Amino acid sequence: MVRLQAEPIQVEDLVRAAGSPGDGAIAVFLGTVRDQSAGRRVLYLEYQAYAPMAESEMARIEREAIARFGVSRVALVHRTGRLEIGEASVGIAVASPHRAQALEACRWVIDELKRSVPIWKKEHFEDGSVWVEEEEPRGEGGGDPP
Amino acid sequence: MRVQVRFFASLADRVGADVESVDVPPGTDVAGLWSALLGKHPGIGDLRWRPMAACDLVYAEWDQKLDGVEEVAFLPPVSGG
Domains in chain A, start-ordered, CATH in brackets? Predict the structure, then answer.
């Protein structure tokens, strides 16, 4: 299941969409909006998507995760529009008979989403706003939310 | 031939629109379309990165011909997640 949505992400929906009785593990990841970026206070974020292509790239990631890691199902949801500090911008649930595959696939899904899905975020500060557009994604603990 | 061109994020800001119809000669490739756009929108000439291109919702190389393509999108480096 993949979806772009303006509404808040419900973790229970992700878990329900991914899980089945044959699974012994569901790995869940949420990327959340941080209140600072490179030392500047962030007021809120705005996400824009090339919606039809973003959904088709997300569906490719879902298919590829299942094929590469042998997991049962992937639920992948990304928000669009304005997001406040602390809200989840992306939610992932990966279900699998065993935990290792679910955890590995979940990590791969978020990395692949950040690499290839046509979605952009705009950071709004007290004194202006900027589209985040960098050729090399910043690493974990860098300036942008995971 | 006529293609629909879409711009996103700062590219849309620089062009002043998120969609535009452009007439290009048969045999034009993505790079040729970008050159034509540079002539119309000088504001996209000094980017710090090279946009990615997509033809009909699929990532495309810059030498892909546009014959039969309906929609071309130019994409700044993505920043979802």
Answer: 2-131 (3.90.1170.40)
